[in-house]
Amino acid sequence: VTMPGRKAVLIQDEITNPVAEVRWGMLTQAKIRLDGAKATLTQNGKTLQAEILSPAGAKFKIVTPPTPGKGERAHPKNLAMLSVFVKPTGSKTKPIRLAILFTPIGKHWEKVPAPKLRLLSKWKD
Description:
This protein is mostly beta strands. The protein has strands at residues 9-15, 22-28, 31-35, 38-43, 46-54, 60-63, 80-86, 96-105.
């Protein structure tokens, strides 16, 4: 996780030798509007855009969160899971890079260009 320009949040992961479908998700009570590789989350008058930067062709989906197990707290009302599903590459040498950029939207926020993606091993502390 990094904050390019301290105006957005980039979540990136690399899965080497993926042998099964990779699933990423986040729970939210925000209203979600999907547009392929972009999702707009709105809650309490605030708006956040999520954009899949990698892999190419990946799209967001909304799924029902798993049911809490016995003894676990119930989910809050209107909880949804914003998710991405990525099929394995079929190659032991080509990892899956999943990168999602979160940007606040509104009159007080500047438009943030997508950062250049780098291997996680090249990130600095």
